[in-house]
Amino acid sequence: MEQEQFKQEVLPLRAQLLFYAQRLLDDPDDAEDIVQEVFLKLWYMRDGLGSYNSVPALSVQITKRLCLNRINARQRRQESLESVNPASDLSTPETQLEQKDSVMQVMRIIGQLPGLQQTILRMRHIDGIEVEEIAGLTGSTPEAVRMNLSRARKKVKETFFKTQS
Prior knowledge:
mainly alpha; Rna Polymerase Sigma Factor, Chain: A; Arc Repressor Mutant, subunit A; 2 domains; 77% helix
């Protein structure tokens, strides 16, 4: 599929996909991000789009899957924060605050990683996507994903412990 054909067939789906994503996510900014991601995926798939019966149906399915992944990631983040910050009688307000600060510091460190490492680390540990799927999404090999994941983890660990001492 050429660029002009892509513009004519795929870009007009934007309003429909945005409406669908907003209904699922209840957040206009997240919905906009999802639609942009759908277009990116479709662009990378453009040479194979002719093999699908309905590009609009495919785009809706991709939107649905990405929205569900985003919802699941939110739930995992919430559960993660709750597990780090348990409401037990054994933890004092000071330790709860320290734990929350540590989580926030790790998130800031992740935000400072190089783009690909940051993306891979977030996809694996926040979104819960498997290495093979990350490789397919990023256009690299599973070995390269594992290497970037290892480097990212090492950098986060080193930076975190440097700031703690």
